[in-house]
Specification:
- This protein has 422 residues and is mainly α.
- It is 77% helix and 1% strand.
- Helix 1 crosses helix 10, helix 2 crosses helix 8 and helix 12 crosses helix 13.
- It is globular and about 70 Å long.
- The relative contact order is 0.17.
Length: 422
């Protein structure tokens, strides 16, 4: 593993590349999203979503390989965008990317709010302040090279937790106990003829792909992996993520067995009340912190750096980065308190519709040799707006596909025109 003159890690190999991608993809927001999917669509829906996530990572691996091949001199998503656009078009698109990543951080902050409320017997504002203070320290005291060194260790903690906790519980209580508890209290989770979940699973492939496409940290790490290792690393990260999510499903079922729930978003966190040994309780709390704190800290670092480079008029320096990082941390801290368990899924769905609507633009940037036209941006704004309106009236699946197809009209028409001219 070599480092360039800027101090950023470059030429990361296959195994290390897989770990640093996985540490970004498995997050506290994904845990809550999985819990909600299990309650809404049953085991069929969640298992289908896991399969869709793996397929999405497989598709994204080809995109990532193309990015590394076509943009050898770039190191970040914004550098790729600036190589294919300029002027007002570039500024608007960069602003959209910035706002979407702020939205992603807010969703993670909402999820952290729910987690802290369940796990810690302390005033919420105090524990919340401590968490975001640590996240800020994590963001500013560690450079990009240090981020990459520590996160594989955190993945080891995740693997240890998802293996030991379910294994210990099944050995102590038995699998039959969990099955009987689910059958008694939540028999709807075992219903397999849920055709609505099939439509959602199909949609999830596009949804997860859009999340990967719009994540600044994922792009940064793609550029740190050896170009000929990118496809394999992304694919393996997706397969490993699917394995972890299957283990997570087991932990959620244990938490649900033998009792009901008051909040479907927090069913996993109530597992701490079923663990009888202090070691397992400590491991579970460490697991929850490991999948939340690095995501927030890394996101603050990357988004603050993006702001300094493209939005702020301040000269790029460590001082300006630290200043913007603390502003962003305080914003996340205060805004997370206005969230509620009822709107976190709506926030994820709206964010997903917007990310999906921008896929045609990003595909144009990655695969076409032409400069991006401002009409692509207008087309995206119309598509995303229509998608959100349809979501509010008809539901998530129609809203997502509406936004995607409307946003694809201008790029697709431009491509057809190109084919005809050839």
């Amino acid at each position: 593993m070599n480092a360039n003159s800027k101090g950023n890690v470059r030429n990361v190999g296959f195994s290390y590349g897989t770990l640093i991608l996985l540490s970004q993809w498995f997050s506290i927001g994904l845990i809550i999203f999985s819990s909600e999917l299990l309650i809404q669509y049953g085991m069929l829906g969640l298992i289908g979503f896991i399969g869709a996530s793996v397929l999405s990572s497989f598709a994204f691996s080809f995109v990532a390989s193309t990015i590394r091949r076509n943009f050898k001199e770039c190191e970040t998503m914004d550098e790729v965008i600036l190589s294919k656009s300029s002027g007002v078009t570039a500024k608007i698109l960069l602003l959209i990317i910035f706002l979407l990543n702020i939205g992603s951080l807010l969703i993670q902050a909402f999820a952290v709010n729910l987690m802290i409320d369940i796990l810690f017997d302390a005033p919420l504002h105090i524990s919340h302040l401590i968490f975001f203070s640590i996240s800020y320290i994590y963001a500013i005291s560690m450079g990009k090279k240090q981020f990459l060194k520590i996160e594989p260790i955190l993945i080891f903690i995740v693997f240890t937790s998802v293996i030991l906790i379910p294994g210990y519980f099944y050995i102590q209580k038995g699998i039959t106990t969990v099955y009987n508890g689910i059958w008694l209290y939540h028999p709807y989770l075992l219903y397999w003829k849920n055709y609505e979940s099939i439509f959602f699973v199909t949609t999830s492939i596009v949804l997860v792909f859009s999340f990967l496409m719009m994540d600044l940290v994922t792009w940064n790490r793609i550029f740190k992996i050896q170009s000929h290792r990118v496809r394999g690393a992304v694919t393996l990260a997706g397969l490993t993520l699917g394995t972890i999510l299957l283990a997570l499903l087991s932990m959620i079922l244990i938490s649900l067995s033998g009792k009901g729930y008051t909040n479907s978003s927090t069913v996993l966190f109530s597992l701490s009340t079923l663990l009888e040994t202090p070691i397992l309780v400590g491991l579970f709390i460490a697991f929850c912190l490991v999948v939340s704190l690095p995501i927030i800290g890394t996101g603050i670092h990357v988004v603050s750096d993006f702001y300094v480079r493209h939005v702020s008029k301040l000269q790029r320096s460590k001082r300006s980065l630290y200043f913007n990082a603390i502003i962003l941390t305080l914003t996340l801290f205060f805004l997370s308190f206005v969230s509620s368990s009822q709107n976190i899924m709506d926030s994820i769905f709206i964010y997903g519709i917007i990310c999906t609507s921008i896929i045609p633009i990003m595909s144009f940037v990655i695969f076409r040799n032409q400069s991006l036209h401002i009409f692509n941006i207008y087309n995206f704004l119309i598509g995303a707006t229509c998608g959100i309106i349809v979501f509010l009236s008809q539901g998530f699946v129609p809203g997502l596909w509406t936004g995607f197809f409307i946003s694809a009209i201008f790029p697709l028409g431009n491509y057809v025109k190109y084919l005809i001219s050839e």
